[in-house]
Amino acid sequence: MSQLALPIIHLPDNTFENFISETNKLVSVFLTDKITALSSTLGSLEIVYLHNKEAVGKTHLLHACCRYAESLKLASVYLDCEYLTQMPPEILTDIEENELICIDNLHVCIASEDWQLAMFDLINKLREKGDKVIVFAASKKPDALEFSLPDLISRLNWGTRFKLKEYSDDDKIEILMTHADERGFTLSAQCCRYILKTCNRDLHQLLAIVDVIDNFSLQEKRYMTIPLLKKALGQA
User: Which of 3, 83, 99, 231 would be a feasible disulfide site paired with 74, CB 3.0-4.6 Å?
Assistant: First the structure.
């Protein structure tokens, strides 16, 4: 039987350096310290569990962990349960050989007892090997996920848990301005405040709006102002 290929996702350039969230800076420092310790000898398994609703930076931090591990020449892997659970658990064979494992959207495993057991077994394998870090991200804390496997909840509670705080308005303004700059146009703080005041405040939605504004500004070939922004949002 041929070995199954992991659904490894191409990582965007999300790093600790471009993680914009003053309220969650301590989390990024903690993660950096744990991964750095792998370069020497950590000695045991470190479990880190990040949780809260969507658009608070969980995925960015998991990507940043892998990017940082790469810079230290450490073997790492990022896996998203949205895709992972569409495949048989056997796909995790030998994944414990990585020093760092980042698993996103763990709450998706609620629908599969097989995948809950696979995550439980993975933690046990990593614990036996030692010198490993596994970082989970989910929508809720372990006790609130209603997993049918109590032992998995117990294992997840072994680790250090962080409830990520929501982005402040200042954070969102900086993120929107940075996103616009990466797309090659300028979006003023004044325009960003107008967007926050009049649009859906979910960060994913806000970033999608910036993309729409970018396309509109290219068509108009004009610098983005409040009147032009109103026109763009009206058409959107």
Answer: 99
* pLDDT tens-digit map of 103-161: 999 999 999 999 999 999 999 999 998 899 999 999 999 999 999 999 999 999 999 99
* Averaged pLDDT for residues 195-220: 88
Q: Residues 6 or more apart from 21 whose CB is under 8 A from it?
A: 57, 164, 165, 167, 171
In the chain, DSSP finds a helix count (H) and a strand count (E) of 9, 5
Please tell me whether residue 161 adopts helix, strand or coil conformation. Answer: strand
12-36 per-position pLDDT tens digit: 688 999 898 888 989 999 999 999 9
Q: What is the pTM of this model?
A: 0.85
**Are 102 and 65 in contact, with CB atoms under 8 Å apart?**
yes
**Residue ranges of domains in the chain:** 22-163, 169-235
Assigned CATH for 22-163: 3.40.50.300
- At 5, the amino acid letter reads A
Residue 89 has pLDDT above 60, yes or no: yes
CATH of 169-235, one of 1.10.8.60, 3.40.50.12280, 1.10.10.10, 2.60.40.3390: 1.10.8.60
Tokens of 12: 């965007």
Length of the chain: 236
CA-based angle 143:104:107, to the nearest 5?
35
Helix (H) or strand (E) holding 176: helix 169-182
3-state secondary structure of 219: helix
